Amino acid sequence: MRVLFRKSYLQDIRLFRDGVQAAWYGGFLALALSAPLWLDGYFLDELALVYIYAIAGLGLMILTGFSGQVSFGQAAFVAIGAYAHTILMGRYGLPFVLSLPATALVAGLAGAAVGRVCSRMHGLYLAIATLSVAIVTERLLGGGGAFTGGHRGLPVPEMTILGLAMDDSWKTYLVNLTLFTGAILLTRNLLRTRSGRALIAVRDSEVSARALGVNVAFFKTWAFFLSAAFAGVAGAMLAHAFYYVTPEVFGMNESIRLLLMVVVGGLGTIHGAVFGAFFIVLLPTVLSLIKVWLPAAIAQSGGFDSLIFGLILLVFILFEPDGLYGRWQKVHHFFSVFPMYKKRGFQRQKTFLKTERLR
Amino acid sequence: MELLTIADVLQLLLVGLSQGCLYSLIAIGLVLVYKATEQVNFAQGEFMMMGAFVGYQFIVLMGLPYWLGVGLTLIVMGAFGYGIDALVVRRLTGQPVFTVFILTLALGIALRAVAGMIWGFGNYTLPAPIPGNLKIGPVVMAWSSILAILLTALISVGLYAFFRFSRHGAAMLALSQNQLAAFYMGIPVKRLTSVIWAMSAVFGACAGLLLAPITLVSTSMGFIGFKAFAGAIVGGFGSIPGAVAGCLLIGVTEPFFDIAFPTMKGIGAYLVMFAVLLIRPQGLLAQIHAKKV
């Protein structure tokens, strides 16, 4: 077990805790950069998809994990991003390097508008309001006529960055990796700034945040803006990965899937978004490998995948509410204090309902 | 768009009313659970779907007489709701609301998959409780829609009387305010909570059986539950009269919206909800109050 000596306050907001941690993450980055050398095309595309989902997940993490605003509508902003990017590139001929920031801005502004409207809502009301944003957005895109291509959708133009055609798996992989690393650094940096701390204060107690002089409505809107901008970038990259955008891909179910993704990963942590993305992208692949060993009657039935997905979620919520990252922390703790690990250390407190509804 | 005649308007109003009553039946189940335990059941639509499928099993596949099948369905669904609380949801008592959101969402996904694996993912027909239509002048009304309206009215009045006059109703109200205090007063908190879940599943099953002749039985019929959510929110979540009023409002405006904007079919409910929430963020009959600093 390493002991950290605190010598200055700046130590609390350093990017990495110490050299060892920096070395670990540097190693991971090197591993990810070299992936095209030792992974074949299919798995490389899957890994790129993990990064895209992780970007969307990071956005949702800012909103739900750090600012405590439950959002069932993240897919709406992914959809807005995908469509904005496709239309800007395909119809108005904007180059990729301009279209991507513009897309982030468009999606972010849409998110800020929703956030401003929803800034007075809480809990369930917010959940249903954002859910209906997802449903309404899907319907509007479907009914948008020639502008959005209706239910038939739009073809996505080829990705070319500064004249370089991104026509190979490893090229798009590296683009996604760059964006993913950027998203992580942005999120990590956000948490080290004043506005990031304000977001967390809003999550932990709106009343005390307001008492400390945090402009709650502004920071809720800010969280929605950031989260939607991340989602927009993820949507743009997703559009390139799918070659074709249709409204159905970004429906309500996708929103719920994204939310469940960050929950499985571990709510309120950057690691959680990444772990969750690995889970949600690789689960179908793993399941199709398992299916070979199962009797055909179960494996061939259409509900098998979603049944397993639902059951895994149930198990996580009941037994490991901190998600994959929480489990990892426990394992890590077990070894770092070995043999002094106590199960009690992580036990959930027993609580009873005391309503806030009635005064 | 040509102008609607008075008969058309009446017809749409009645259709909307019966649809709104079906939403209310789902919403009543939601609000009951919320009132008692502050848990939000996102799987209520799936409870309704399960009710329709269990009814399909008894009435169509096993060929039982209609009303016997309905009785058995309600019993099975009651036991199902009781079991869901006793085995799964109870473990999360007192945890943050968000945890239960996720739990019930996951439950909904699992239930849809299970129903699909047992009965298949197609569309199935279930006979209407009372076949035929009632004609009053130019307006035509299916008997099952009338039944839906009557049943909703009956359940609303019954629940009002239950909470107002019965000992168990009072116990449930106590439970909803403070579980620990209710427990100290000798109220069997666990059992009562499960009974409330059973009641909510039974109301869901009623809605499913009434909805089945209209929309067909399928695994995706549970998505109507989200419209019931919208209705309950319009009314102010946590109040039964509010939920019924909200669902009726949404049900009645929906057919008119669909006729006015055919390309935007199906989102009228959510737009109405947004409009209401913009003006009153706590719904029409507010149940949650912002903390004063």
Automatic annotation (TrEMBL), chain A:
The chain crosses the membrane at residues 21-39, 51-84, 96-117, 173-191, 222-246, 258-281, 293-319. It is a multi-pass membrane protein. GO terms for molecular function: branched-chain amino acid transmembrane transporter activity. Keywords: Cell membrane, Membrane, Transmembrane, Transmembrane helix. It is found in: Cell membrane. InterPro entries: ABC_transp_permease, LivM-like. One of its GO terms (cellular component) is plasma membrane. The keyword Lipid biosynthesis does not apply. The keyword RNA-binding does not apply. PANTHER family: HIGH-AFFINITY BRANCHED-CHAIN AMINO ACID TRANSPORT SYSTEM PERMEASE (PTHR30482), HIGH-AFFINITY BRANCHED-CHAIN AMINO ACID TRANSPORT SYSTEM PERMEASE PROTEIN LIVM (PTHR30482:SF20). This is Branched-chain amino acid ABC transporter permease. It comes from Seohaeicola zhoushanensis.
From TrEMBL, chain B:
GO terms for biological process: amino acid transport. It is a multi-pass membrane protein. Keywords: Amino-acid transport, Cell membrane, Membrane, Transmembrane, Transmembrane helix, Transport. GO terms for cellular component: plasma membrane. One of its GO terms (molecular function) is transmembrane transporter activity. It is found in: Cell membrane. The keyword Zinc does not apply. It comes from the Bacteria. InterPro entries: ABC_transp_permease (IPR001851), BCAA_transport_permease (IPR052157). Signal peptide: none annotated. The chain crosses the membrane at residues 12-34, 100-121, 141-163, 195-217, 229-253, 259-279. Belongs to the binding-protein-dependent transport system permease family. LivHM subfamily. This is Branched-chain amino acid ABC transporter permease.
